[in-house]
Amino acid sequence: MKITIGNVAQQISDKTGVKEEIVKTVVQSMTEVITESLARDKKVGIVNFGVYEKKKRKAHTRDNYLGTGKTVSISERYRVSFTPAENVTKRINNDK
User: Fold this and answer.
1) 3-state secondary structure of 62
2) How many CB atoms lie within 10 A of CB 42?
3) Residues 10 and 34 in one domain
4) Residues 6+ away with beta carbon under 8 Å from 1
5) Which of 82, 27, 31 is nearest to 52 (CA)?
6) Sheet containing 50-57: which strands, arranged edge to edge?
7) What is the DSSP string of 63-94?
8) Which of 34, 41, 44, 54 has minimal CB crowding within 10 Å?
9) Are 55 and 65 found together in one domain?
């Protein structure tokens, strides 16, 4: 199951008592700031959550996944890497 910004806003609103519309605006603004920071080659660290980082993937070739026997060229591109904080890794593995 996927969680949406609306779900996050509702849960934060329920926990804090802040209006859901305000929380949703803050959460959307946070994602915009993270995206813009990554676009400017900045790492984004969120304490007790993890670090987002822009990483370059070199150009390469690979076999066509359709089984045609041909190779396809894949251009250089960037991707986002996320490294979770230790407490997040422990929590998702039920290690408390």
Assistant:
1) strand
2) 13
3) yes
4) none
5) 82
6) 44-46, 50-57, 77-84
7) E-TTS-S-EEEE--EEEEEEEE-HHHHHHHTT
8) 41
9) yes
Only one residue has tokens 């979770």, namely 84
- Total count of domains within the chain: 2
What are the pLDDT digits (tens) for 29-50? Answer: 999 999 999 999 999 999 999 9
* Sole residue written with tokens 């290690």: 95
Domain that residue 7 falls in: 1-42
pLDDT tens digit sequence for 4-36: 999 999 999 999 999 999 999 999 999 999 999
Residue 5 to residue 26: CA distance in whole angstroms: 10
Which two three-digit tokens encode residue 41? 């080659």
Side-chain half-sphere exposure of 79, counting CA atoms within 13 A = 7
> Which pTM value belongs to this model?
0.77
Q: What are phi and psi of 8, to 5 degrees?
A: -60, -45
